[in-house]
Amino acid sequence: MDLTFTKEEQAFREEVRTFFKENLPEDISSAVKAGSELTKDIMERYHAILAKKGWLAVTWPKEYGGPGWTPVERHIFDEESCKFYAPRIVPFGLAMLGPVLQKFGSQEQKDYYLPRIMSGEDWWCQGYSEPGAGSDLASLKTRAVRDGDEWVINGQKTWTTLGQHADKIFCLCRTDPDVKQQEGISFILVDLDTPGIEMRPIKLIEGGHEVNEVFFTDVRVPYKNLVGKENQGWTIAKYLLTHERTGIAGVGFSMLALEEVKALARKVMRNGKPLLEDPLFAARIAQVEVDLEAMKITNLRMLFKAQKQGAPGPETSILKIKGTVINQELKDLARRALGPSAAPFPGAITEGNLALAPENHANNAARYFNNRKTSIFGGSNEIQRNILSKAVLEL
Amino acid sequence: MDFDLTEDRQMLSDSLNRFLADKYPVDHRIKVAYQEPFHDPALWDQLAELGAIFALAPEDKGGFGGTGFDISVVFESLGRVICPEPVLGALMATRILSHTDANQEALLSGSMRAAVGLGEIEAPYDLSSIATEATKSGDGYTLTGRKSAVYGGQAAHHLLIAAKLDGKLAVFRVDAADADVTGYAMIDGGGAAEVIMENTPAVLVLEDAADAVQDAVNAGILALCSEAVGAMEVLHAMTVDYLKQRKQFGRPIGTFQALQHRAVDMLTEIEQSRSIVIKAASELDGPDATKYCAMAKNLIGRAGRLVAEEAIQMHGGIAMTWEYPGSHYAKRIIMIDAQLGDTDYHLSRVMAA
Ligand SMILES: Cc1cc2nc3c(=O)[nH]c(=O)nc-3n(C[C@H](O)[C@H](O)[C@H](O)COP(=O)(O)OP(=O)(O)OC[C@H]3O[C@@H](n4cnc5c(N)ncnc54)[C@H](O)[C@@H]3O)c2cc1C
């Protein structure tokens, strides 16, 4: 047993730190710090900075222009990028579609799409969920019918994250309604400019716009936009799911959130004393800190195992469940620490000397409410428990 | 022992519920709660006409109620529609004024709206170290300081402000037009205000007001807890309904035991909440009011968080949207914790009692 990172890993951490210190623009890190919605411009500029260094497609192997990092190196990168208030890399093209094309795409698709993902020329969004198909994704109904060398698509996708910025969407569509649900789904690439597509915004609980619904009416796309084989979509979706499974603990984000809550509780004064001196509040912080310390090791243990085995196993669902709960707890504390100063609607009262909350904390309540999503999407925490009880406990 | 409402209160509850269900459908609520003046002045008038504010004061002060149970009935009804009308300000104002001989007709009839400014950014719950100071000036007073997140302050004609006068807590009346009042929407809808005073003229309402303020705070806590119970019950009903309607994997999600048990846990917490509110209501005018109100606010804080978070989780994505009414109930229930003392603050009060 040895909990130290290797010499190479430590050197890598230094390299990542230096990179962020020297290359992350101040306006980007301050936007992340303030916790407001990030603009498309910020996300694109950040991607370009990483791309220049060769660090954008963190999960891609070297042959496709990725850095070829091990899971532990990826973890180090995540941790450090959080510390420097770098944005999250938008996952849809880079972390989702890229690996799918590398495994299932035709040579033509790889040659065409992968460089465009890397350069930021294409912005992808994910068209899986439908109003009737959430946890039970395999019941999806959006229909794609072959007509000569085209697909004709009809139906509706929803919850499409950042679809308002996207120009392309990858969809799971029903291509054979007469077989077992999982066996009649195909993975199809769609240009959002195609006639017959309408995108409408969905306003979230805290008032933000990050998701959309997408309607398809007789949308015609080339047959060659099919990825893999016809009716192989479910296999592809499942591959993606296992591929996504490291990094879901969000340890880096939680470590940062913990530091922020402590700093906030030192700053917020309650009756002449910093809130951190209130034993009840201090106990709440300490309690999450204990859980997070364990989560860091749980995460590394699972990364280490994944590195040895080549792929993460179903036990990584533990990371999703506990990781989101810890992060949500920290968001709760950040709101709670402010008391009534968390009450204003985001942006309702921002003028300098009128602001109620310390700098960068005006959105704490909004962030708390928005963050409830993390235990719902990407396989809800209930679905993760189902996976664990079936695949790990064999119940 | 009798846990039923008296006939009068049942009638009040029924007529309020009918009125609010009719006039405050959730779409309307969501609209007015976020657009200036962050409530609906026409409905405020009608609510007052119905007697909702008269019910908050005893007969000898011009009202027709004023007990803990009257307050509880009114606010539970308001909670059921997450009503953003600034009734809390009226309640706390009448509680304070009832320690004086002031005529309350304008307040109780709703023609004059009042908000009560107690907490400050660095003293949101415990008022012993508030910084707002009163100074004698001629035969009146002036106030200097800032009251923060004054609930309903954006819609108030008069503000009752807690300030230090010769080191003691006193209450003053400030004409809203005389202070620097900046109103805004809150994240859970409804309005509040920052009230900044700099040598602002004020009328002394009550010297040595610590007990009167505590009484107003206790009544306010009871009101908020009752509001939370109303809101939690509706949100729970919405959740159970959704569990029955929503199908995944070919069956209603309510058939999954993992969700059934959690819906039951919500029910248990709501029943506990109702009980502690009944206890606090029955003690409101007794010597241990502060202790029982602290207990209620602590329990409601914990139960509210569980109910709001579980409701969202068990709905899935739909409850994360603005359009779904449940999200607005969840926001209100969570944010109630930050008014008049949160879960931890009141736990420490119970420990000290
Ligand atoms: C902010 C946000 C962004 C999203 N972004 C995207 C996106 O970009 N692309 C995309 O395709 N999708 C996206 N999603 C959709 C997300 O994946 C779904 O919300 C998720 O799969 C859950 O589906 P649902 O919301 O329909 O809830 P439901 O599946 O209806 O679930 C409701 C409740 O029932 C529980 N439940 C369901 N089945 C079971 C079971 N068998 N046992 C126990 N409990 C169960 C769930 O856990 C949940 O608590 C996003 C969602 C949100 C909220």
Automatic annotation (TrEMBL), chain A:
Cellular component terms per the entry's GO annotation: plasma membrane
Origin: domain of life: Bacteria
Domain Acyl-CoA dehydrogenase/oxidase C-terminal: from-to ranges: 231-392
Originating organism: Pseudooceanicola pacificus
Entry keywords, A to Z: FAD, Flavoprotein, Oxidoreductase
Lineage of the species this protein comes from: Bacteria, Pseudomonadati, Pseudomonadota, Alphaproteobacteria, Rhodobacterales
Protein's name according to its UniProt entry: Pimeloyl-CoA dehydrogenase large subunit
Record-annotated Acyl-CoA oxidase/dehydrogenase middle domain positions: 125-219
Domain Acyl-CoA dehydrogenase/oxidase N-terminal: 6-121
Homology family: Belongs to the acyl-CoA dehydrogenase family.
Example GO molecular function: flavin adenine dinucleotide binding
InterPro entries membership: Acyl-CoA_Oxase/DH_mid-dom, Acyl-CoA_Oxase/DH_mid-dom_sf, AcylCo_DH-like_C, AcylCo_DH/oxidase_C, AcylCoA_DH/ox_N, AcylCoA_DH/ox_N_sf, AcylCoA_DH/oxidase_NM_dom_sf, Mycobact_Acyl-CoA_DH
Listed cofactors: FAD
Automatic annotation (TrEMBL), chain B:
Keyword ATP-binding: no
Domain Acyl-CoA dehydrogenase/oxidase N-terminal stretches: 6-88
Gene Ontology MF term list: acyl-CoA dehydrogenase activity; flavin adenine dinucleotide binding
Cofactor(s) needed for function: FAD
Signal sequence range: none
Oxidoreductase found in the keyword field: yes
Ranges of residues in domain Acyl-CoA dehydrogenase/oxidase C-terminal: 213-350
Keywords for the protein's UniProt record, in alphabetical order: FAD, Flavoprotein, Oxidoreductase
Gene3D superfamilies, alphabetized: Acyl-CoA dehydrogenase/oxidase, N-terminal domain, Butyryl-CoA Dehydrogenase, subunit A, domain 2, Butyryl-CoA Dehydrogenase, subunit A, domain 3
Family, as annotated: Belongs to the acyl-CoA dehydrogenase family.
Protein name (Swiss-Prot/TrEMBL): Acyl-CoA dehydrogenase
Species lineage: Bacteria, Pseudomonadati, Pseudomonadota, Alphaproteobacteria, Rhodobacterales
